[in-house]
Amino acid sequence: MTEAAIPKTAARPALSRQTTVWIVVGVVVGGAILASYATNAVITTSVMASALRQSVPIVLGALCGLFCERSGVINIGIEGMMLMSAFTAFLTSVTIGRATGDANTALAAAVIVGLLTGALLGLTHAFMSVTLKVDQIIGGTVINIIAMGLTGYFYQANMTTLGKFQPIALPLLSDIPLLGPVLFTNPPITFAALILVAVAHYVLYFTPWGLRTRAAGEHPRAADTVGIHVNMMRYANVMIGGMLAGLAGAFLPLEAVGSFERNMTNGRGFIALAVMIFGKWTPFGALGGALLFGLASAMQTQLQFFGLGDVIPHQFVGMLPYVLTIVVLSGFVGRSRPPAAEGKVYTKE
Predict the structure, then answer these.
(1) What is the mean pLDDT of each run of 10 residues along the chain (349 residues)?
(2) Residue 111: which residues within 8 A CB-CB, separation 6 or more?
(3) Would you list the DSSP string of 241-279?
(4) CA geometry: angle at 252 spanning 136 and 127, to 5°?
(5) What does the domain layout of the chain look like in residue ranges?
(6) Which of 125, 207, 221, 245, CA to CA, is 20 to 30 A from 181?
(7) Which DSSP string corresponds to 103-127?
(8) What does the DSSP assignment read for 46-104?
C-alpha cells in the first residue's frame, strides 16, 4: 500500500501547537541549565536543589486541590490546612522530643499528626460543602481564617525541636553529576512528594477510583445513575486532599525550616491553586508549575546573594515568584477547562 493510499484518519496525529511550545521551552531551559552547569557547577546545583525544595509544599498543595476539584469540590482552604498542619506537627515534634529525647520518633509522630490534622480539616470542609451545602468559597475562607487565628493565638516563641529531617543519598544514583545532588539526595518528604505525583496520576487515570472521582466532578447525575455514590466520593477525596495539604504543611517545620513562625505558609496554599490551574488539573502539570515557581524562588534568592538587592530594593526582587504566578495565570486561566461540576452541590433525587 502506498503512502497516498493511507487514510488521513489512520495517519499519526501531528503535535499540537501547545505541545510543540512546551518541547521548545523544555529544550531551551535544559540547554540553559547545562550551560550554567558547565560555567559554575556549584551554584547551578545549589539553585536547582533549592528550586526542588521550594516546589515541594506547592506541588503537595496542588495535589490537594486537584483531588478536591476533580471530585467537584472547590477548596481554597489549602492555605489554612497547610498552616494548621504545620503548627500541630511542630507542637508534636517539640512535645514528643522533650518526652522521649529521640528526634526520629518525634519527627515520625509529627508527620502522622500533620496528616491527621489535614484529614480532619478536609472532613470539616466536606461537611460544610456537601452536607450543609455552604458556599464552598466561604467554607474554604472560614478554614483559612480559623487556622490563622488559632496558630497565631497559641504560638509560643522559643520552642525548639530536636532537629529536622536530613537528606538521604540514594546509593549510586546520588553520584550522577547535577541530577544526583538535585533528585537523589533529599529528605524523605521531598522524595514522598515526587512519588505522590506519579501515584496520583496513576490513581486518577488508571483505576476505578479515579474514574469515579472524575465522573463525580464532571457529571454527577450520570455517575449517580450508574451506581456511584457522588457525595461519598466527594467526602473521601476532600479528606485525601486534606492529608496531602497536611503533608505540605508538615514539610515546613519538619524538613524545610525546623521551627514554626506565625503565618509561615506565606501564601503557598494560594500559589498551589494557581499551579493546579496552570497544570490543567493534572498531577504532572501541577509538578511542572510547582517547579517553575520553585525555580523563580531560588533565582530571586540567588540574585540577592549576587548583590542585586543593593541596586533594586529587595522587596521587588522577592516579588519575582509571585509576579510570575500572575503572568502565568493571566495567560492560562482562560484556556484551562475546570471540571464541569466543580463547585456545584449535588442532591440525590
Answers:
(1) 44 54 73 85 90 96 97 97 97 94 95 98 97 95 96 88 92 92 96 97 97 96 94 97 98 94 93 90 92 88 72 77 75 72 89
(2) 89, 189, 247, 250, 254
(3) HHHHHHHHHHHIIIIISSS--TTTTTTHHHHHHHHHHHT
(4) 20
(5) 54-162+185-335
(6) 245
(7) HHHHHHHHHHHHHHHHHHHHHHHHI
(8) HHHHHHHHHHHHHHHHHHHHHHHHHTT-----HHHHHHHHHHHHHHHHHHHHHHH--HH
Dist. CA 316–CA 295, nearest whole Å: 17
> What is the total residue count of the chain?
349
Report the C-alpha gap between 74 and 11 in whole angstroms: 40
Q: What's the confidence (pLDDT) of residue 3? A: 45
Residue pointed to by grid coordinates 488559632: 150
- Whether 285 and 279 have beta carbons less than 8 Å apart is answered as yes
pLDDT value at residue 8: 44
Report the first-to-last Cα separation within the chain, whole angstroms. Answer: 56
Read off the C-alpha cell for 342. 466543580
User: Could you give the CA distance from residue 309 to residue 327 in angstroms, rounded to a whole number?
Assistant: 22
The whole-number pLDDT of residue 344 equals 93
- Whether domain 54-162+185-335 has CATH 3.40.50: no
